[in-house]
Design a protein that fits this description.
flat, single chain, 2 helices, about 70 residues
Amino acid sequence: MKMTRRALAASLSAAALAAQTPAQTSAAAQPAPDAELQTARDRVKANTLLLSGQQVPMTVEPAFAFKP
């Protein structure tokens, strides 16, 4: 069987895409949208508090010059 490089690449990419399909989960296993949103907000708040406590030396901060 004669196969070109393009045909081989197309068949390999199709096989890789087919292998990456996610497993189906039941609706009961997924968190409610409100709970997921609250979890994301909590993560953002925790990261904000963590980053606001870090000291950054003046030499690290870039100088901004906004020119119209």
